[in-house]
Amino acid sequence: MRKQTLTWLSLFLVMAVTLSACGTAGSAESTSAESEAGASSELSGTLSISGAFALYPMMTIWAEEFTKLHPDVQFDVQGGGAGKGMTDTIAGAVDIGMISRSIKPEEESQGIFWVSVTKDAVFPIINAENPVAEKLMAQGITQEIYNKIYITGEITTWGEVVGDPSITDKINVFTRSDASGAAEQWAKYTGGEAQEDLLGIGVNGEPAMLDTILKDPLGIGFGNLNSIFDLSGGNLVPGILIPPIDINENGTADAGEVYTVKEDAFGAVANGTYPSPPARFENLATLGKPEGLELEFIKWILTDGQQYLEAAGFVPLTPEQQAESLAKLEQ
Amino acid sequence: MSDIQLNNTLKTEGRLSRPSTPSRARTDRAAQRTFFIITLVPVALILIVAVALVVRAYPILNSYNLSDLLLGETWRPNNGEFGFRPFILGTLWVTTVGVLLAVPPCLLVSVYLAEYAHNRTRTIAKPILDVLAAIPPVVYGVWGLLSIVPFVDDVLAPLSERWFGSVSIFSVTQPTGFGILAGGIVLAVMISPLIISVIFEVLSTVPNDLRHASLAVGATKWQTIRTVVLPQVLPGIVAAIVLGASRALGETIAVLMVVGNVPNIPTSVFDTAYPLPALIANNYGEMMSIPLYDAALLGAALVLLVVILIFNILSTLVLQRFLRRS
Amino acid sequence: MKFQKKHFERRHIVELVIKTIMRLALFIVAGTLGLILWTIISRGLPSLSWEMVSQVPKGGYYMGKDGGILNAIIGSAYLATGGTLLAMILSVPIALYLKAYLGKSRWGDYVRLSLDVLWGIPSIVYGAFGFALMVLLGMRASLLAGIIVLALVELPIMTRAMDEVIRRMPSDLEHAALALGSTKFEVAINIITRQMLPGIITAILLAFGRGIGDAASVLFTAGYTDRIPTSLMNPTASLPLAVFFQLGSPYPEVRERGYAAALILTIAVLLVSFGSRWLAARLNRYTIK
Questions:
Q1: Quick one: which of B57, B102, C93, C134 has the most CB atoms within 10 Å?
Q2: How far is C140 from chain A (nearest CA, A)?
Q3: Which chain B residue shows the shortest CA-CA distance from C261?
Q4: How far apart are the C-alpha atoms of A213 and B73, rounded to whole Å?
Q5: Which residues have C-beta within 8 Å of that of residue B215, sequence separation ≥ 6?
Q6: Distance, first Cα to last Cα, chain C
Q7: Contact residues on chain B for A91, CB-CB shorter than 8 A
């Protein structure tokens, strides 16, 4: 009997040893990524990346496409949130951080270098059966009204939003309770400073936000491009409407302000019609200027990598924005 | 080692020689010493974990006084406001609901299994309880998400609005099924195997003579249980409940997925809440980028540890005394 | 004198009612298990595919495209194996020591108390502790960090389960061996392990099952990646986190795959649970009754 146990134990040990041997044999450790970009024309090494959940799916696509071109490069991509990405980058635990917000001066003074690589946007959402939906789609909602709904709390009924005091339906305001870049952007747009300033019932996670609005005709919330639109078809998720933001504040929802298909929304964000915030640049951050493999990867994202963005629900950079980012890298 | 004691055992036992008695004694003493040192590990571990958390939480304990931290209501780490009260209350509410929902059925089941059930029932019940205990918390969370949250939303909330609308503790103020009740239901199922098995063991320590004596004078089984057995084991039952509560306090993932995670002060079981473990788990990513946030979260872990330790030690001491009687 | 009592006194009715309520409670508890399994299977099975268990996530997996969760399956296997082995190294000696050397001593009581206390500490606290340790040592999120924290979580579970079983071993065998001149160490490794092997294996597999399913401890410490780890210092995915992250996705296809991942995790844990029962039954052949 003891022989049997010993055999099993040794099998385990053999497996463990083989595994670690396989490990150290081939790939480089995930510490420095500035490996052999200079000497040979073939890139190799491991890049570890962490950060915003918003960019995470996109980054895995980029990683896969880049690996197709350079098979010796490997990626370790993690989520964890923009905060984690920043922390990890500063601490040197990862090579690149995905940051779905603008970089703060304190972070830059700790040595953070960043470039913008794509744009995405947060849109307000309401239920398609909202009692004042038609009026809203015609008039739009100004930034000031959003401020009074989300930050100061002065506006509490849908009647006040459309200027009809006879309508007394309450606005059920929803925000995000989890640390969310989308909420951060929405807060900045509506006049707050941070996500914490938003009023409303907190919902945890983007899927839950969408579900909540789908169930509540009196609800108002916000969400990212890629959850509001069905990306393969291009239409809004059935049951959801985007109340136009009356950007030019003329009291009507003009053509560039109404988004019913994803191309409209994309276009508005790309050409700058849609305000930023709540549109935002997604940034990649490194500790110090990127070199070697990091540099090659980021440059690729800014050039060839841009072609994969639209299908994933992100807005490609305009040529000027691209040039700006590339120039920053070259400096 | 003298040659006289060296036996050539190759023919009889298939090995060359039997170690001599002195060398065996030496091995025994060495083993005793090594094993003893190893047993120091669990004892020391508790201290090490506690100390590590205190050290990491120290910065925030230093900058704010304890009552501000524990009783403060605002949680705005960006502004340096760390009021833990919503989270402590959230934890208390979810745990209380969970324990209240779990105890009556668990008590009934354990009494049934210990006093009434056929052996056959017991042999079926044991694997069922084992499987319930083995299901990973994240799977409980998925089940809660798929079954319990819609149940609360579609069935319980409307019922409560109709029947108990005026009672504040049952009032429905938010439209989702996420909340304390959902968390409590999931927790109740998760802690049930534990409570059932502890109460069952405690009931088994009551000698059968007592039961037989009571039955002999004509009492029914239930009368016997009620008047003879249960009073004897009452401390054990309380200990089992406390143990279940301490498990519920620490359960992170399953509760996180259904409780809503909104830091408000709960006033109704249909409110969302944000228990301490969920706070720690949700925000570990932001920890290092906001000053004092990591100390705050690890301080939360420390609070959790202290409370659970107290519950645990007390209930374990009671149970150890009980179970040793058998 | 009136000795005749009514056939159906109130207390008999109470007895019947209570019995029915108890049976109902048992039915509810058992039924809940059925409900849980049914929910997981019915929501997870449609998205379960061979692809899911045989491939790592390809790019675009998190938007609903190709790939699977092999990274998480293997990651969890590594984590749980490593953690269990590490915990065994401490667990087996402690359990044997408690029986063979200590018997009824006070130190034994302290050790048992500590183990019970450690058992009650939630894995999120171990995870936080592990994180603090990692920061102190400058370690990154890695397989090794995850293994160490999992070992901490598994140690009390394993030792307690082992101890429960080993304590019930009748002392006759021990005493017989000691009477024949065995040292305590020899009793421990020859007699106790052989006799209690089914119980020991069950305890180890119990802890292993816990190691596969625990999320809170690996959340901070093991990281996450789409690759299969090739060295101890790589970050690694794990099944519970794979479920958790996929459920938070805005894409419904990804969420459905999250349910499938939960099903895979449940099947794995059930396999370990029933496997240990089967193994224990087979090993019972070698014990003395």
A1: B102
A2: 6
A3: B139
A4: 28
A5: B221, B224
A6: 56
A7: 288
In this structure, is residue C1 part of a structural domain?
A: no
| Chain A interface includes C184 (CB < 8 A) | no
- 10 Å CB burial of residue A282 (0-12, 13-18, 19+) is buried
Cβ atoms A54, A83 nearer than 8 A? no
d(CA C37, CA C44): 10
* Distance of alpha carbon C16 from the chain centroid: 39
As a whole number of angstroms, the distance between CA B173 and CA B183 comes to 17
DSSP class of A237: P
Q: What are phi and psi of A178, to 5 degrees?
A: -85, 155
One domain for residues C24 and C89? no
Verify that C34 and C124 share a domain, yes or no. Answer: no
* pLDDT tens across the length of chain A (331 residues): 455 666 666 666 666 555 544 443 333 333 344 444 444 457 888 899 998 888 888 999 999 999 999 989 989 888 877 878 888 888 788 899 998 888 888 888 888 999 999 988 889 999 988 888 888 888 888 888 899 999 888 888 888 888 888 888 888 888 887 777 788 888 889 888 878 788 888 777 788 888 888 888 889 999 888 788 877 777 888 888 888 888 888 877 777 788 888 888 888 888 888 888 888 889 999 998 888 898 999 999 999 999 988 888 788 888 888 888 888 888 7
In a domain, C2, yes or no: no
Give the ipTM.
Answer: 0.92
Please give the CATH number for the structural domain made up of B91-286: 1.10.3720.10
Contact A314, A225 (CB under 8 A): yes
Which of B79, B176, B283 shows the shortest C-beta gap to A203?
B176
CB distance B178–A196 less than 8 Å?
A: no
Q: CA of C154: how far to CAs of B136, C94, C146, C215, in Å?
A: 14, 14, 12, 13
Q: Are B157 and B177 in contact (CB under 8 A)?
A: yes
Neighbour tally for A175: CB within 10 Å: 24
Are the beta carbons of C234 and A1 separated by less than 8 Å?
no
Q: Are residues C32 and C154 in the same domain?
A: no
Interface residues from chain B to A (CB-CB < 8 Å): 76, 78-79, 174-176, 178, 260-264, 272, 274, 282-290
Look at the block and give the residue holding tokens 């040979």: A40
Amino acid at C60: G
Burial string for C2-28 (b: 16+ CB within 10 Å, else e) reads: eeeeeeeeeeeeebeebbeebbebbee
Parent domain of C38: 10-47
Whether C33 and C105 map to the same domain: the answer is: no
Within a domain: residue C35? yes
Q: Let me know whether C77 and C139 are in one domain.
A: yes
d(CA C231, nearest CA chain A) in Å: 5
Q: What is the DSSP string of C28-72?
A: HHHHHHHHHHHHHHHHHGGG--HHHHH-PPPTTGGGT-S--SHHH
| Count of structural domains within chain C | 2
- Beta-strand relationship, A96-99 and A279-287: antiparallel
Q: Is A207 on the interface with B (CB under 8 A)?
A: no
Q: Do C16 and C110 fall within a single domain?
A: no
Q: Is residue C263 part of a domain?
A: yes
Q: Name the one residue in this structure whose structure tokens are 């089967």.
A: C278
How far apart are the CA of C228 and the nearest CA of chain B, in angstroms?
A: 22
- In sequence order, what are the residues at sequence separation of 6 or more whose Cβ sits closer than 8 angstroms to the Cβ of residue B166? none
To 10 degrees, what angle do helices B21-63 and C143-167 make?
120
Provide the shortest C-alpha distance from residue C19 to chain A (in Å).
Answer: 43
Alpha helices, H only, chain A: 2-25, 56-69, 82-91, 105-109, 133-139, 143-150, 158-162, 181-190, 206-215, 225-228, 262-270, 292-302, 309-312, 319-330
Say whether both C160 and C112 belong to one domain. Answer: yes
Identify all chain C residues contacting A80, using CB atoms and an 8 Å cutoff.
Answer: 224
